[in-house]
Each structure stands twice: as structure tokens, then as C-alpha cells.
TrEMBL record:
GO molecular function: electron transfer activity; heme binding; metal ion binding
Alphabetically ordered keywords of this record: Heme, Iron, Metal-binding
InterPro entries assigned to the protein according to its UniProt record, in alphabetical order: Cyt_c-like_dom, Cyt_c-like_dom_sf, Cytochrome_c-type_DH
Cytochrome c domain location: 29-137, 178-282
Protein name (record): Fructose dehydrogenase cytochrome subunit
Provenance organism: Pseudoprimorskyibacter insulae
The UniProt record lists the keyword Heme: yes
One Pfam family of this chain: Cytochrom_C
Keyword hit for Iron: yes
Gene3D superfamilies, alphabetized: Cytochrome c-like domain
SUPFAM superfamilies membership: Cytochrome c
Length: 282
């Protein structure tokens, strides 16, 4: 009986957190800024249907597969379709998903969805992103289930995972300038660069002591490089984020190619800010 009480208490403490309904309703949303947030956050990179190109990528029908040590996660349909996407959500439910990794029906999302980074998003950027989202094309393609076996398919356990690995603190606390602060927001929050460039522990949490220090490729092939040890000039980093071309006359490939496509749509000042942040790590 005591064990059941302890288990029930644990589930209560680690239950999915949510914003109250209407918590962000007082904000005046700017969909133009929301478009910039959309590309900086890389939404299109994961949720566009496989094989789509051009404007068709804006139909966020999902379907891309992301392998990991815990199973294969399939990106869901997050288009504005009210039945198969998220068109029936409220702004508060959208914010709860981004900030807490919680679904409208009270479940934990898997951290393949980088809410540990999006948790740092500002209220205004969330509201602006939601306003832009309303103009995206809907898709009636059903989301596919994740291919995750026991015990990782027990979503209730993710509450404990969040307690261990979600933090309101920035990884890099000492920021020397407003430009680097903007770069931190783009790298640690919107761009969620640490999700790929930082190694993970046995439970899948980011090893922030080795922040952006490089990591094994989840596909099992090769390694994702260290940004903390990157010896490029800041101008080279900014140019790479715009064009995909490296100082060594190579070009971006794999999952980095769509990241470059996204950052190329941002103002030059944002690419410069990311470069300044990366150089500040060194």
C-alpha cells in the first residue's frame, strides 16, 4: 500500500505541466516576426513530409523518421488541420507543448521534440509563431506512431526525465554583449543546436558540461562536429550559415543542409550573433 502511495505521489509531482488557458491572450501577435521564429526554430526541417521541396515543405504533414538509442521517432503532422494536425489547439496549448513538452490531452511528449530548448522561448515569440502558423497550409495526413518499445513507451516516466534534464537556466550564463545574448537565444533556444552538437548521457540527457562539444550521429554513421572547438573566424561561421560553404571549400550536407536553408532566411545580424556566441565559447 505504501509503495502504491509513493508511486501515485511520484506521478502527481511529475505530471505534465500546462499554461493556464488564456495566459498569453493579452499579447499582440506579429506574424511577420513569427515567420522569422519559424525558420530559426527549424520547424520545417523535421515536420515537412519526406521528399517535399519548395513551397510544399510548408505543409507540415510529418512523416520523417529519426532513429535513436531508444527507438525511432516519427515526426507528427503539426499543420493547422483541425483533425490530423494542431489546428484545434489554443495558443496556451501550443505554448504548453513548446515550453513544457505537454500535449493538450495531458501526456508528456518525447524529447525528440526539443522542448528542453524551446522552454527558453519568450512569450512574444510563441504568440508570434502561433499567429504565423495560422496561415500555413493544412494536411489531412494522419500522424504515424513512434516505433518505441518497452520500457521507453511508458510516457509517464518522462515526467521524471524532465525533472532531471529540463532547466530554466541558460547553459552559458556569462554573456559579454547584447549580440552574444541574441546568439545565445538563437543557439540554445530557437535553433536548439545542442540537440545534435552536444553528447548525451545514458538516459538521453544532454551532457551540458561538454556543451556543443560534438556527438555521435544518431544514424550511427560518423560524428557531429564540435562547435566549441571550431577554429573558423566569426565571418566564416556567419557565411556558412548563409550559404552552406565552409572555409575549406566544402559544403553543408545531411541534416545541416536544411539548417542552413533556414538560417539563410534570417537577418544577417542573427547569423552574426550566432557566430559571436560560438566564438565566445572559446
Amino acid at each position: 500500500m505504501a509503495a502504491l502511495c509513493v508511486a501515485a505521489a511520484g506521478l502527481f509531482v511529475t505530471r505534465p505541466a500546462k499554461l493556464p488557458d488564456g495566459a498569453l491572450d493579452g499579447l499582440s501577435a506579429d506574424p511577420a516576426n513569427g515567420e522569422q521564429v519559424f525558420y530559426a526554430a527549424g520547424c520545417i526541417s523535421c515536420h515537412a513530409a519526406p521528399g517535399t521541396t519548395g513551397p510544399a515543405k510548408l505543409t507540415l504533414a510529418g512523416g520523417q523518421a529519426f532513429p535513436s538509442d531508444f527507438g525511432t521517432f516519427i515526426a507528427p503532422n503539426i499543420s493547422p488541420d483541425p483533425d490530423h494536425g494542431i489546428g484545434g489547439w489554443t495558443l496556451s496549448e501550443f505554448a504548453s507543448a513548446l515550453r513544457y513538452g505537454s500535449s493538450p490531452d495531458g501526456q508528456h511528449y518525447y524529447p525528440a521534440f526539443p522542448y528542453t530548448a524551446y522552454a527558453h522561448m519568450t512569450d512574444q515569440d510563441i504568440a508570434d509563431l502561433w499567429a504565423f502558423w495560422q496561415g500555413l497550409p493544412p494536411s489531412d495526413v494522419p500522424s504515424q506512431p513512434h516505433q518505441v518499445g518497452f520500457p521507453f513507451n511508458i510516457r509517464a516516466s518522462l515526467g521524471g526525465w524532465k525533472m532531471l534534464f529540463m532547466s530554466k537556466d541558460w547553459v552559458v550564463a556569462d554573456i559579454p554583449s547584447p549580440e552574444v545574448e541574441r546568439g545565445r537565444y538563437l543557439v540554445e533556444a530557437l535553433g536548439h543546436c545542442g540537440e545534435c552538437h552536444t553528447p548525451r548521457n545514458a538516459l538521453g540527457g544532454l551532457d551540458t558540461a561538454n556543451w556543443l562539444g560534438g556527438a555521435p550521429n544518431p544514424s550511427g554513421s560518423g560524428k557531429i562536429p564540435s562547435l566549441a572547438a571550431l577554429d573558423w573566424a566569426a565571418s566564416d561561421i556567419a557565411y556558412y550559415l548563409e550559404t552552406g560553404f565552409t572555409p575549406d571549400f566544402d559544403s553543408a550536407g545531411g541534416h545541416m543542409a536544411p539548417v542552413v536553408q533556414n538560417f539563410a532566411r534570417l537577418p544577417a545580424a542573427d547569423r552574426d550573433a550566432v557566430a559571436a556566441y560560438i566564438k565566445a565559447l572559446q
